[in-house]
Amino acid sequence: MIYIFSLFITLAYLLLMSYNISVVIPTTRSIYLKELLESLKAQTYKNFEVIVVDNSINETESQKIKSISDSFEIKYVREEKDGLHNARNRGVLESKGGIIIFLDDDIIPDHNLIEELIKPFYIFDKVAVVGGKVIPIYEGKLPDYMNHLKYSYTSRLDYGEKIMEVPTVAGGNMACLKDIYIRVGGVNPDAFQKRENIWYRGDGESGFCRKIIQSGWKIIYTPYAVVKHRIPSEGLQINNLKKQAFKHGIQMSYSKFFGNSPSKFLLAVRSISFFLLFLHNMVLHKLHSYPINIRYELDGETFKARFLYELRLIFNKKLREHIRRTNWIT
Fold first, then answer.
1. Do 216 and 252 share a domain, yes or no?
2. Main-chain dihedrals φ then ψ at residue 153, nearest 5 degrees
Protein backbone atom coordinates (compact mmCIF):
# COMPACT_ATOMS: atom_id res chain seq x y z
CA MET A 1 0.00 0.00 0.00
CA ILE A 2 2.84 2.35 0.91
CA TYR A 3 4.57 1.49 -2.37
CA ILE A 4 1.44 2.34 -4.39
CA PHE A 5 1.04 5.64 -2.54
CA SER A 6 4.70 6.54 -3.13
CA LEU A 7 4.34 5.67 -6.80
CA PHE A 8 1.25 7.89 -7.05
CA ILE A 9 3.08 10.83 -5.45
CA THR A 10 6.04 10.34 -7.79
CA LEU A 11 3.83 10.25 -10.88
CA ALA A 12 1.90 13.30 -9.69
CA TYR A 13 5.16 15.17 -9.11
CA LEU A 14 6.46 14.25 -12.58
CA LEU A 15 3.19 15.53 -14.05
CA LEU A 16 3.54 18.70 -12.01
CA MET A 17 7.10 19.21 -13.26
CA SER A 18 5.97 18.96 -16.89
CA TYR A 19 3.06 21.41 -16.53
CA ASN A 20 3.54 24.75 -18.27
CA ILE A 21 3.77 27.56 -15.74
CA SER A 22 3.90 31.29 -16.41
CA VAL A 23 5.12 33.75 -13.77
CA VAL A 24 3.67 37.22 -14.37
CA ILE A 25 5.33 40.20 -12.69
CA PRO A 26 3.47 43.49 -13.18
CA THR A 27 5.69 46.44 -12.31
CA THR A 28 6.04 50.20 -12.47
CA ARG A 29 9.58 50.42 -11.05
CA SER A 30 12.98 48.84 -11.42
CA ILE A 31 14.38 49.08 -7.89
CA TYR A 32 13.68 45.49 -6.75
CA LEU A 33 13.21 43.76 -10.10
CA LYS A 34 16.74 42.40 -10.56
CA GLU A 35 16.75 40.85 -7.08
CA LEU A 36 13.39 39.19 -7.70
CA LEU A 37 14.48 37.74 -11.05
CA GLU A 38 17.67 36.40 -9.46
CA SER A 39 15.59 34.62 -6.80
CA LEU A 40 13.43 33.02 -9.49
CA LYS A 41 16.54 31.48 -11.07
CA ALA A 42 17.16 29.71 -7.74
CA GLN A 43 13.69 28.12 -7.51
CA THR A 44 13.46 24.37 -6.92
CA TYR A 45 10.89 24.18 -9.72
CA LYS A 46 12.52 25.08 -13.04
CA ASN A 47 9.99 24.65 -15.83
CA PHE A 48 8.37 28.08 -16.11
CA GLU A 49 8.44 31.22 -18.18
CA VAL A 50 8.70 34.72 -16.70
CA ILE A 51 6.79 37.68 -18.11
CA VAL A 52 7.55 41.18 -16.88
CA VAL A 53 4.70 43.56 -17.64
CA ASP A 54 5.88 47.17 -17.59
CA ASN A 55 3.07 49.55 -16.63
CA SER A 56 5.19 52.53 -15.60
CA ILE A 57 4.21 56.06 -16.61
CA ASN A 58 7.86 57.11 -16.18
CA GLU A 59 9.88 56.68 -19.38
CA THR A 60 13.20 56.36 -17.54
CA GLU A 61 11.82 53.59 -15.30
CA SER A 62 10.40 51.81 -18.35
CA GLN A 63 13.82 51.81 -19.98
CA LYS A 64 15.38 50.36 -16.82
CA ILE A 65 12.67 47.68 -16.55
CA LYS A 66 13.23 46.63 -20.16
CA SER A 67 17.01 46.61 -19.74
CA ILE A 68 16.82 44.36 -16.67
CA SER A 69 14.32 42.04 -18.38
CA ASP A 70 16.52 41.76 -21.45
CA SER A 71 19.58 40.98 -19.33
CA PHE A 72 17.74 37.96 -17.89
CA GLU A 73 16.50 36.97 -21.38
CA ILE A 74 12.87 36.86 -20.28
CA LYS A 75 9.73 38.13 -21.94
CA TYR A 76 9.13 41.88 -21.61
CA VAL A 77 5.69 43.35 -22.33
CA ARG A 78 4.77 47.02 -22.34
CA GLU A 79 1.20 47.77 -21.18
CA GLU A 80 0.21 51.36 -21.91
CA LYS A 81 -3.14 51.42 -20.11
CA ASP A 82 -2.67 52.60 -16.54
CA GLY A 83 -3.72 50.18 -13.81
CA LEU A 84 -2.40 47.10 -12.04
CA HIS A 85 -5.36 45.06 -13.35
CA ASN A 86 -4.47 45.99 -16.92
CA ALA A 87 -0.91 44.80 -16.37
CA ARG A 88 -2.00 41.52 -14.77
CA ASN A 89 -4.61 40.80 -17.41
CA ARG A 90 -2.17 41.63 -20.21
CA GLY A 91 0.36 39.24 -18.67
CA VAL A 92 -2.19 36.44 -18.72
CA LEU A 93 -3.05 37.04 -22.38
CA GLU A 94 0.67 36.99 -23.27
CA SER A 95 1.36 33.81 -21.29
CA LYS A 96 1.83 30.24 -22.53
CA GLY A 97 1.25 28.43 -19.25
CA GLY A 98 -1.86 26.63 -18.04
CA ILE A 99 -1.14 27.92 -14.53
CA ILE A 100 -0.40 31.61 -13.97
CA ILE A 101 1.57 32.78 -10.94
CA PHE A 102 1.36 36.45 -10.02
CA LEU A 103 4.19 37.98 -8.02
CA ASP A 104 4.56 41.57 -6.84
CA ASP A 105 7.84 43.20 -7.78
CA ASP A 106 8.83 43.99 -4.17
CA ILE A 107 8.54 40.52 -2.67
CA ILE A 108 11.26 38.07 -1.63
CA PRO A 109 10.13 34.51 -2.47
CA ASP A 110 11.21 31.38 -0.65
CA HIS A 111 13.31 29.08 -2.86
CA ASN A 112 10.44 26.54 -3.17
CA LEU A 113 7.64 29.07 -3.73
CA ILE A 114 6.59 27.99 -7.22
CA GLU A 115 6.68 24.30 -6.36
CA GLU A 116 4.50 24.83 -3.28
CA LEU A 117 2.03 27.12 -5.06
CA ILE A 118 1.17 24.55 -7.71
CA LYS A 119 0.99 21.43 -5.51
CA PRO A 120 -2.58 22.08 -4.23
CA PHE A 121 -3.92 21.95 -7.79
CA TYR A 122 -3.12 18.23 -7.72
CA ILE A 123 -4.26 17.56 -4.16
CA PHE A 124 -7.71 19.15 -4.10
CA ASP A 125 -10.65 18.91 -6.46
CA LYS A 126 -11.97 21.90 -8.44
CA VAL A 127 -9.25 24.31 -7.38
CA ALA A 128 -8.89 27.47 -9.49
CA VAL A 129 -6.72 29.65 -7.22
CA VAL A 130 -3.92 28.96 -4.75
CA GLY A 131 -2.31 31.58 -2.52
CA GLY A 132 0.46 31.53 0.03
CA LYS A 133 1.64 33.29 3.14
CA VAL A 134 2.74 36.93 2.94
CA ILE A 135 5.06 38.13 5.70
CA PRO A 136 5.74 41.88 5.89
CA ILE A 137 9.32 43.06 6.35
CA TYR A 138 9.42 46.51 7.89
CA GLU A 139 12.34 48.61 6.66
CA GLY A 140 12.06 50.82 9.74
CA LYS A 141 10.54 50.84 13.20
CA LEU A 142 6.82 50.05 13.35
CA PRO A 143 4.99 53.19 14.58
CA ASP A 144 3.06 52.92 17.87
CA TYR A 145 -0.28 53.66 16.24
CA MET A 146 -0.11 50.58 13.98
CA ASN A 147 -1.25 48.38 16.90
CA HIS A 148 -4.46 50.40 17.26
CA LEU A 149 -5.67 50.41 13.66
CA LYS A 150 -8.81 48.66 12.44
CA TYR A 151 -7.02 47.46 9.27
CA SER A 152 -3.40 46.34 9.03
CA TYR A 153 -2.40 48.33 5.91
CA THR A 154 0.62 46.01 5.56
CA SER A 155 -0.59 43.32 3.11
CA ARG A 156 0.04 40.56 5.66
CA LEU A 157 -1.74 37.30 4.84
CA ASP A 158 -1.50 34.37 7.24
CA TYR A 159 -4.32 31.88 7.79
CA GLY A 160 -2.12 29.64 9.92
CA GLU A 161 -0.04 26.53 9.36
CA LYS A 162 -2.57 24.27 7.61
CA ILE A 163 -3.59 23.98 3.97
CA MET A 164 -7.22 25.07 3.79
CA GLU A 165 -9.99 26.49 1.65
CA VAL A 166 -10.28 30.27 2.06
CA PRO A 167 -12.35 33.18 0.68
CA THR A 168 -9.43 35.24 -0.66
CA VAL A 169 -5.66 35.34 -1.07
CA ALA A 170 -3.07 38.03 -1.81
CA GLY A 171 -2.53 38.97 -5.45
CA GLY A 172 1.21 39.27 -4.98
CA ASN A 173 1.56 35.57 -4.13
CA MET A 174 -1.17 33.83 -6.10
CA ALA A 175 -1.48 31.06 -8.69
CA CYS A 176 -4.53 30.42 -10.84
CA LEU A 177 -5.74 28.32 -13.75
CA LYS A 178 -5.48 30.43 -16.87
CA ASP A 179 -8.69 29.29 -18.52
CA ILE A 180 -10.75 29.92 -15.37
CA TYR A 181 -9.07 33.30 -14.87
CA ILE A 182 -10.19 34.37 -18.34
CA ARG A 183 -13.62 32.78 -17.96
CA VAL A 184 -14.51 34.84 -14.87
CA GLY A 185 -13.27 38.08 -16.45
CA GLY A 186 -9.82 38.51 -14.89
CA VAL A 187 -8.95 40.70 -11.93
CA ASN A 188 -11.06 43.78 -11.28
CA PRO A 189 -9.65 47.35 -11.46
CA ASP A 190 -6.90 48.00 -8.95
CA ALA A 191 -4.09 50.46 -8.24
CA PHE A 192 -3.53 53.34 -10.66
CA GLN A 193 -0.53 55.65 -10.90
CA LYS A 194 -2.37 58.65 -12.30
CA ARG A 195 -4.24 60.50 -9.58
CA GLU A 196 -7.16 61.35 -11.87
CA ASN A 197 -7.94 57.63 -12.14
CA ILE A 198 -8.44 57.12 -8.41
CA TRP A 199 -12.25 56.97 -8.69
CA TYR A 200 -11.93 54.07 -11.15
CA ARG A 201 -10.01 51.75 -8.88
CA GLY A 202 -11.88 48.67 -7.68
CA ASP A 203 -11.35 45.58 -5.57
CA GLY A 204 -8.58 43.92 -7.60
CA GLU A 205 -7.74 40.37 -6.53
CA SER A 206 -10.35 40.30 -3.75
CA GLY A 207 -13.05 40.90 -6.36
CA PHE A 208 -11.43 38.28 -8.59
CA CYS A 209 -11.53 35.77 -5.71
CA ARG A 210 -15.19 36.56 -5.15
CA LYS A 211 -15.92 35.81 -8.82
CA ILE A 212 -14.02 32.52 -8.55
CA ILE A 213 -16.12 31.33 -5.60
CA GLN A 214 -19.37 32.50 -7.22
CA SER A 215 -18.43 30.42 -10.26
CA GLY A 216 -18.25 27.28 -8.11
CA TRP A 217 -14.46 26.98 -7.85
CA LYS A 218 -12.24 26.73 -4.78
CA ILE A 219 -9.47 28.95 -3.43
CA ILE A 220 -6.78 27.19 -1.42
CA TYR A 221 -4.27 28.68 1.01
CA THR A 222 -0.98 26.93 1.60
CA PRO A 223 1.38 28.02 4.39
CA TYR A 224 4.29 26.43 2.55
CA ALA A 225 4.33 29.00 -0.27
CA VAL A 226 5.93 31.96 1.46
CA VAL A 227 6.97 35.42 0.31
CA LYS A 228 8.29 38.31 2.33
CA HIS A 229 6.91 41.72 1.39
CA ARG A 230 8.94 44.88 1.86
CA ILE A 231 7.16 47.66 3.75
CA PRO A 232 9.13 50.94 3.46
CA SER A 233 9.08 53.33 6.42
CA GLU A 234 7.38 56.08 4.42
CA GLY A 235 4.53 53.72 3.62
CA LEU A 236 3.58 53.66 7.30
CA GLN A 237 3.61 57.42 7.77
CA ILE A 238 0.21 58.88 8.66
CA ASN A 239 -0.22 60.81 5.40
CA ASN A 240 0.39 57.66 3.34
CA LEU A 241 -1.90 55.58 5.56
CA LYS A 242 -4.63 58.19 5.05
CA LYS A 243 -4.26 57.73 1.30
CA GLN A 244 -4.53 53.96 1.73
CA ALA A 245 -7.60 54.36 3.94
CA PHE A 246 -9.25 56.59 1.33
CA LYS A 247 -8.55 54.05 -1.42
CA HIS A 248 -9.88 51.30 0.81
CA GLY A 249 -13.16 53.20 1.11
CA ILE A 250 -13.48 53.39 -2.68
CA GLN A 251 -12.76 49.67 -2.90
CA MET A 252 -15.46 48.84 -0.35
CA SER A 253 -18.14 50.83 -2.18
CA TYR A 254 -17.06 49.38 -5.53
CA SER A 255 -17.38 45.86 -4.10
CA LYS A 256 -20.82 46.68 -2.69
CA PHE A 257 -22.26 47.61 -6.09
CA PHE A 258 -20.08 45.54 -8.43
CA GLY A 259 -22.08 44.37 -11.44
CA ASN A 260 -25.21 46.27 -10.35
CA SER A 261 -27.07 49.53 -10.92
CA PRO A 262 -28.00 50.98 -7.51
CA SER A 263 -30.87 53.46 -7.34
CA LYS A 264 -29.99 57.12 -6.91
CA PHE A 265 -32.20 57.28 -3.82
CA LEU A 266 -30.27 54.44 -2.18
CA LEU A 267 -26.97 56.11 -3.05
CA ALA A 268 -28.17 59.43 -1.60
CA VAL A 269 -29.20 57.80 1.69
CA ARG A 270 -25.93 55.89 1.95
CA SER A 271 -23.87 58.98 1.08
CA ILE A 272 -25.48 60.96 3.90
CA SER A 273 -24.87 58.06 6.30
CA PHE A 274 -21.18 57.85 5.38
CA PHE A 275 -20.83 61.62 5.74
CA LEU A 276 -22.23 61.42 9.27
CA LEU A 277 -19.85 58.54 10.07
CA PHE A 278 -16.99 60.65 8.76
CA LEU A 279 -17.96 63.52 11.10
CA HIS A 280 -18.37 61.07 14.00
CA ASN A 281 -14.84 59.74 13.52
CA MET A 282 -13.41 63.25 13.26
CA VAL A 283 -14.98 64.05 16.65
CA LEU A 284 -13.53 60.84 18.12
CA HIS A 285 -10.15 61.79 16.68
CA LYS A 286 -10.29 65.08 18.59
CA LEU A 287 -11.49 63.45 21.82
CA HIS A 288 -8.84 60.73 21.99
CA SER A 289 -5.11 61.10 22.49
CA TYR A 290 -2.22 59.77 20.44
CA PRO A 291 -1.77 57.01 19.28
CA ILE A 292 -5.38 55.79 19.59
CA ASN A 293 -6.72 58.88 17.81
CA ILE A 294 -4.93 57.87 14.60
CA ARG A 295 -7.36 54.98 14.16
CA TYR A 296 -10.31 57.37 14.04
CA GLU A 297 -8.50 59.69 11.65
CA LEU A 298 -7.93 56.81 9.22
CA ASP A 299 -11.45 55.41 9.65
CA GLY A 300 -12.72 58.91 8.90
CA GLU A 301 -10.81 58.88 5.59
CA THR A 302 -12.45 55.58 4.67
CA PHE A 303 -15.93 56.92 5.36
CA LYS A 304 -15.13 60.17 3.52
CA ALA A 305 -14.13 58.16 0.45
CA ARG A 306 -17.34 56.15 0.57
CA PHE A 307 -19.41 59.33 0.94
CA LEU A 308 -17.73 60.99 -2.06
CA TYR A 309 -17.66 57.84 -4.21
CA GLU A 310 -21.33 56.99 -3.78
CA LEU A 311 -22.27 60.64 -4.26
CA ARG A 312 -20.39 60.56 -7.56
CA LEU A 313 -22.27 57.41 -8.55
CA ILE A 314 -25.49 59.44 -8.49
CA PHE A 315 -24.30 61.91 -11.13
CA ASN A 316 -21.41 60.28 -13.00
CA LYS A 317 -22.64 58.05 -15.84
CA LYS A 318 -19.15 56.82 -16.69
CA LEU A 319 -18.58 55.68 -13.10
CA ARG A 320 -21.95 53.87 -13.05
CA GLU A 321 -20.97 52.02 -16.23
CA HIS A 322 -17.63 51.23 -14.61
CA ILE A 323 -19.17 49.38 -11.64
CA ARG A 324 -21.56 47.43 -13.91
CA ARG A 325 -18.70 45.97 -15.92
CA THR A 326 -17.69 42.47 -14.75
CA ASN A 327 -15.23 41.33 -17.44
CA TRP A 328 -11.92 43.20 -17.46
CA ILE A 329 -9.84 40.93 -19.69
CA THR A 330 -11.85 40.52 -22.90
1. no
2. 60, 20
